[in-house]
Specification:
Elements lengths: L2 E12 L6 E7 L5 E2 L1 E4 L6 H13 L2 E12 L3 E2 L5 E15 L9 E8 L8 H12 L5 E2 L4
Parallel strand pairs: 1-7, 5-9
Antiparallel strand pairs: 1-2, 1-4, 2-3, 2-8, 5-7, 6-7
Length: 145
């Protein structure tokens, strides 16, 4: 049976204009780069989960600024055979303090990257970052192109 879970993604932005950077982590399980993401704890607010995950995975303090995308992920199959889909709350977050570093073992690297020099990523992660950088006041719902 597929697991239906709630998740939060934090696109942490630092700097302004031509000096904008995005916090990315390299996952320990598959080596992929992307924004910090994790499961929302029971009773936890989605924006609080995003901020918590940034501290736990990358050792950075951030503040959630706005919801930029509410969507459902594709089915993800893990090495143990679990199949999941997430209700994904994607937040634009502002950097407050801290130098990124892997903290809890879920990431092997954590770094700020200039927007002009992001590492290769999945299309979903590119879209998460693009929507956060657009910084529109309204959130996107469902699929976006």
């Amino acid at each position: 049976m597929p697991l239906w879970l709630s998740g939060s993604t934090a696109v942490v932005v630092r700097g302004v204009a031509d000096d904008t950077e995005v916090l990315l982590v390299q996952r320990a399980d598959n080596g992929e780069w992307g924004p910090v993401a994790g499961i929302i704890d029971p009773g936890e607010q989605p924006h609080a989960a995003a901020v918590r995950e940034v501290a736990e995975e990358a050792g950075v303090e951030a503040v959630a600024e706005r919801l930029v995308w509410l969507t459902v992920t594709e089915t993800i199959t893990y090495d143990n055979g679990d199949r999941t889909q997430y209700i994904d709350h994607v937040f634009r977050c502002g950097w407050v303090t801290g130098d990124p570093r892997p903290v809890d073992g879920e990431a092997t690297r954590a770094e700020f990257f200039p927007v002009s020099a992001l590492p290769p990523m999945t299309e979903r992660n590119v879209t998460r970052i693009r929507l956060a950088l657009e910084n529109r006041p309204e959130a996107h719902f469902g699929s976006v192109s």
